[in-house]
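Input structure tokens:
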């Protein structure tokens, strides 16, 4: 009789554990399939300072840049800890490119070229405006170099004017009035 009761209790415990496990899987929607992590960009945080990507997303003047960053699959990379300095061209800067250029770059087959151009707008370092000086060479993520010019209190990177600066949780966004193109390799 004792053996029978112990067997029933043991079986009941196993069934209860299996039922709890099944309920947890069903409620979380993760039954037995693995989910691909979305990366840092998927973290929802409405209280902390915005990262460089969220700064761009929140700007009505950077919708083209946001589309380009998404098309080049750079959202998660730029949402990481950094520090990054992003030289962010405005919509008007993209519109000043030859007709059809942006549409062509946004095509999936041009993803690498688009990524190269966008990475030329990013440095892995924090460069506040006050730390930039005339003639300074900055290494960009794509392996190219860009030159800072300071004249009469106006700052440029290559031939683009820095027209505003926004601090982000993982770096700095310098708004620029022109798309800067990497030197040909």
């Amino acid at each position: 009789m004792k053996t029978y009761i112990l067997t029933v209790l043991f079986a009941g415990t196993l069934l209860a554990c299996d039922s709890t496990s099944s309920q947890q899987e069903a409620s979380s929607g993760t039954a037995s399939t693995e989910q691909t992590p979305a990366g840092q960009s998927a973290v929802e945080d409405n209280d902390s300072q915005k990262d460089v990507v969220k700064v761009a997303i929140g700007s009505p003047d950077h919708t083209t840049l946001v589309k380009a960053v998404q098309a080049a699959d750079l959202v998660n990379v730029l949402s990481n800890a950094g520090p990054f300095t992003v030289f962010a061209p405005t919509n008007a800067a993209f519109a000043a490119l030859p007709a059809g250029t942006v549409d062509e770059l946004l095509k999936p087959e041009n993803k690498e070229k688009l990524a190269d151009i966008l990475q030329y707008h990013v440095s892995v370092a924090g460069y506040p405006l006050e730390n930039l000086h005339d003639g300074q060479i900055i290494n960009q993520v794509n392996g190219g170099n860009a030159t800072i010019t300071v004249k009469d209190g106006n700052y440029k990177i290559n031939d683009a004017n820095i027209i505003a600066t926004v601090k982000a949780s993982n770096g700095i966004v310098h708004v620029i009035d022109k798309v800067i193109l990497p030197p040909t390799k």
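Residues 1-43 have pLDDT under 50 and may be disordered. Helices lie at 2-28, 52-57, 63-71, 75-79, 91-95, 101-105, 111-119.
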